[in-house]
Amino acid sequence: MKQSQPTSTGIARFIPGLALIKGFSPALLRTELIVAVTVFALIVPSAMAFGDLAGVTPVAGLYVALGAMVMYALFGTSKQVIVGPEATAAIMTATAVAPLAGGDAARYAALAALLALLVGVVALLARVARLGFITDLLSKPVLVGYILGATLIVIGSQLGKMFGIKLESDQFFRQVLELISRLDEAHLLTVAIGVVCMAALLIMRRVNRKLPGPLIVVVGAIVASALFDLQAKGVAVVGAVPAGLPSLAIPPVTIQDVFALLPAALALMILIYADEILTSRVFAARHSQKIDANQEFVGIGTANIAAGLLTGFPCAMSASRTTVNDQMGGQSQWVGLIAAALTIIFLLFFTPLLAPLPTVALGAVIIIAALGMIDIAAFRFLRQVRPAEFWLAVVTTMGVLTVGVLWGILVAVVLSLIIILYRISRPHDALLDDVDVAGGTIYRGVEDKETALTEPGLIVYRFDAPLVFANAAYFTERLEALISNAGPELRCVILDAEAISDFDSTAAEALETLDTDLERLGVDLWIARANGPLRGLLTATGLTKRLGAEHIYPSVRAAVTAYHAPDGL
């Protein structure tokens, strides 16, 4: 079902979540409630694990999830994205904070909260500067490659759970190699439970995609664990969860701490934003929605500020929870708000419920959800359209897997820009020939013309790109080759400038040099179909005066007609 677009006027422009009230209905609530319960069931154990990974108390992960989901629901523009504690942000938090904490747990927690606040402030400043345009650099090949890389990272992070092994590696290929080398340590009952859970999820998806498969598997795993005491048989379970709600607080830090953590906050913000905007664009395209790239800075920023004020740590988009949300049919941020409400209720009254949940069941849910993100057809499409884009997607995937999400994306963006520059420097061009059609004569490019002339004494040449410093030399070379092959009968060169949407000083100098060379040969240079901006640039650079305003024609046909006129040359 096609979703309505975010409201872009009035106060809803700054708080898109207000549209949730307008779109509320009992039917929507019933659908979103089932999805939210499943998302919530994933949040509790994973959030606690990421809290531990970040170096703070596990329950801090739940505080982060609570604040982040509420604030993103209010200020974000994606209907599917779930924001909260995530592995990459947790790992980077530990890396940045540990050297400054000096082993003091209270100071560690304060610095982690400060880092979240700084990430939020930097994101809001990026919104003020309207830096959302940087998403235009994230082309389809980068998007396709990133999604595959990120999906494999999510799967790799769950491999240890599936085999009952605590993997030490935090990089995908090392995780796979470590798992292979330690297969003799696998806990067979854990493996069996994981296989059953994955099979159940796949069967339910095939039978009816609307079935709440993850929820059924999680509840079934809890019941089975309690009945058969799986923990006593060596199966890892979530365990006890502390009760109580967090209080709002500004962390007790110094200005020196702010400056010490600012570089890490900047790097984290870029990583979090790139990860979130890439994924949200995938789901938006899937559901005919629109993402406001600048407003996403506000969603991310306020989510991190909330996480910091709740004594948490930096939050990010959760690929696994977002995918589960989408695959179960989540249609709005009511899922995030309901999941946040369930988190509050859970923290207050029901912390013992998830204690017997086998972590392998969670791993199975996350892996099956992640597999749904893999799009091999997209790679085939890129290969058919342009092989270079296929290899760019492959490089992006490998970069994300080997050097991390941020550097992998940056490398891919740089390669994209290099490819663009190459295409601009070597654009398509054509010698035009006249073709008779109903209604008159048109001029179009020819590939197999035996001569370098459009007709005796005349070259009509089209250059299909902006004429700038990157391709001015190529433009000159191509025309000089045509002129050289034309022979002494050449009298006029007409440049079809329809595709020349831009023009710079290097190009002006190249045209002036070309006109000087043609003048020595007794050949005129005329221009046809120059648009308004180009005509202004020709005047500003003095080329109109040099060529003669009468030799700037509105169409190729008009220029050729003038060439054939008795007084044309």
Describe the structure.
61% of the residues lie in helices and 7% in strands. With 569 residues, it is an alpha/beta fold. It is elongated, with a radius of gyration of 31 Å. The chain starts with 18 loop residues before the first helix and ends in a 5-residue tail after the last helix.
Which features characterize this protein?
569 residues; alpha/beta; Transcription Regulator spoIIAA; 2 domains; 6-stranded mixed beta sheet; two-stranded antiparallel ribbon; 22 helices
Please specify the SSE layout and strand pairing:
Elements: H1 19-22, H2 26-54, H3 59-75, E1 83-84, H4 87-101, H5 105-128, H6 140-163, H7 172-181, H8 188-207, H9 213-228, H10 255-286, H11 293-309, E2 316-317, H12 319-327, H13 334-349, H14 359-371, H15 376-385, H16 387-403, H17 405-425, E3 429-437, E4 440-446, E5 458-463, H18 472-486, E6 492-496, H19 505-520, E7 524-528, H20 532-540, H21 543-547, E8 552-553, H22 556-564
Parallel strand pairs: 5-6, 6-7, 7-8
Antiparallel strand pairs: 1-2, 3-4, 3-5
Helix pairs in contact: 2-3, 2-4, 2-12, 2-13, 3-11, 3-13, 4-5, 4-10, 5-10, 5-11, 6-7, 6-14, 6-16, 6-17, 8-9, 8-14, 10-11, 12-14, 15-16, 16-17, 18-19
